[in-house]
Design brief:
Helices cover about 80% and strands about 0% of the residues. It is mainly alpha-helical and about 425 residues long. α10 (about 180-195) runs antiparallel to α11, α17 (about 310-320) runs antiparallel to α18 and α20 packs antiparallel against α21.
Length: about 425
Amino acid sequence: MRRAAWMLLLAVTLAGAQHPPAAPDPAKVEAATKALERGEQLLAAGKLDEALAQLRAAKASIPAEATWLTVRAMMLDGLCQFAQGNAKAAEATFAAVIEQFADWPEGPDALNYLGRAQMAQNRDKEARASYYKLLALAPHSQARYAAETQLLNLDLKAGDLAAAEARLKGLQKSLPCWSELPYLQGDLATALAGKGQPAAALTWLETIRRECPGSAAAQTARRPQVEALLALKRTDEALKLLDEVVAQAPEQQVVASAATLRVEVLTAAGQWEAAVAVLAALAQRYPASSVALEAVEQQSELLRKHDRFDEAVAQVTAVAAAFHGNWWRAQTLPVRIGALRAKQDWDKAEDALAELVKLTEGTPTAAQALLDMAEVQRAAGRKKAARATLDKIVQTYKGPPVVPLAMHLAAEWEKADKAAPN
């Protein structure tokens, strides 16, 4: 079950717990849901005035017992106001969500958007407080990643490079496999270089290229690395690095962009197998790179869409084998897990999820992997193992949405097992 689906399921359950005497009229719930969906579509299309009017009309039609729809409507209202540039009104809306529904699945996201609205008004002190509240409330939510990013941005905005370095060193220890970590390191390096600290900048740039070789962040780091070497009068090293750049397929991004367009054209024309071949060739041409990972992920999606599950698993496994290091392992495993789950190869999917949990223990990524593992175990008929996995989440992780969801799933599965015929 994907994140959006299980968050809705949890929201419905929480609403039922808070309003046990009455159930909302199904017809009214369906009508309000469709009205919200129309508002969300208008928001996505950038028709902000129409979207806001639609969302507010939808909210007015929501039955009082359907609390989960009210929360959703409030979140969308706040996002629409923020997109309109009305940060003050958006702040008030997100603050209302937090005041009433902080422990709901939307709570961490509301805190994230509250901080963004405050930053848009240059109220950085309040924004920091919002992000730290998010970290305290839901340290294992996906919204934590956004909070960590914005806190670093606030350090850099304030020119407090010492605080930014300390923060990044802490993230290296607590979130070493986080996909965005090398990009944040690059941001810090740029700030350090801008303040006349090329040696410190170079240290961070070398870290990116050493720990995340082949990544887009590592490629982006090459130019500032050369500039830092020149500032330090290490000309020979700068020239050597440039020689390496020339030897390491400098045309990669151009070729990748052309291949992406070719895949779009072929897919639109119904020639999906030709598109798969283009992606396979791209991944083979640039192994152990961000380009290869993106290509095989798209290739896997196309193959799975046409029920070619064995091929999808084989392609992902082959491409992933070229990557090395824990950071890259944490990026490739989710792609392989997706292919294995689509194939319903539950044993190998569980093994891959266990590896991802081990790599990312104590992080939002691990929390989500454990939820996925419980579902895989349940699908494989290993009900006791699934319950033990949910218990581990409740015992070792904190806050919405993962802990309430684990508790909800445990209760739902127990209920279903009791109702099942012996």
